[in-house]
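Q: I'm a student working through a structural biology exercise. My instructor gave each of us a protein and asked us to get a predicted structure, then write a short paragraph describing it. Mine is ABC transporter permease subunit. I'm not confident about reading structure output yet, so if you can add a plain explanation after the tokens, that would really help. Here is the sequence I was given:
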Amino acid sequence: MSKGRSPFLTWMLVLGMAFLYVPMILLVIYSFNKSKLVPVWGGWSVRWYVELFQSPEVWSAVMLSLKIGVVNATFATILGSLAGLAMVRFGRFKGRTLMSGMLAAPLVMPEVITGLSLLMLFITMQDLIGWPAERGFTTITIAHITFSLAYVAVIIQSRLVGMGETLEEAAQDLGAKPFRVLTDITLPRLAPGMMAGWLLSFTLSLDDLVIASFVTGPGSNTLPILIYSRIRLGLRPDINALATIIILVVAVGVAIAGIIMMRQQRQRDLELSRVSDG
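A: Happy to help. First, here is the predicted structure for ABC transporter permease subunit. I'll explain a few features afterward.
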């Protein structure tokens, strides 16, 4: 039965991989197109990479996106971790249902509604207290933290539920103070989840277009906004070059993460074999 199904599963795997990666391969190939017209092949050339690296507008957008991503991921991880701890470790408390609904809202709310509501909030605050004076780095970062911390909270809650409370209770029975238990046991065990939440928040920030377009102002274009604005004016080969660089960076990051995970797995297997032999 398994032999009869294996060719079908193999073809499904091939088709699925082709569906995902053939467009990326074509994009990389056409990033070396010499022609100014994207659909017309004019020969191999790196002219669009040269123009891309000489564009201050592109690098300004890249630096802004990276700064927003780092700040957003850091604060979202801190706030989301605290929220996850409160939801799992504090038991039932007054306002827990409301807090749970507020954490879940950014996950299911359409981005258009979220962006519009944040825009109205910033306009109202500017009228009342004069802050923010302009929309840009600060408003985009606050908007990204608003929805990113919800994802972090979900990850931390799942991690805490899987961890259980056995070690924490044992440490308390041995006389450890709550803060010592938090810093020496809970947080180290939460570190993988917190790192996953940080990376997810950073990725969501770099990828966001809809919400950022509502809360940004003149001269504060993130990378997704810049790419979208250029595509609206017509496809240009330098966008293919930029996308190729992004794909390369992501591929290198995934490869490094895969190598680290493989080494850690080998180390764990080696330790288990030593224990079993001993």
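A: Here are two points you could use in your paragraph. Residues 57-265 form a domain with the MetI-like fold fold (CATH 1.10.3720.10). The chain has one domain: 57-265. It's a good idea to check both against the output above yourself.
Q: Great, thank you!
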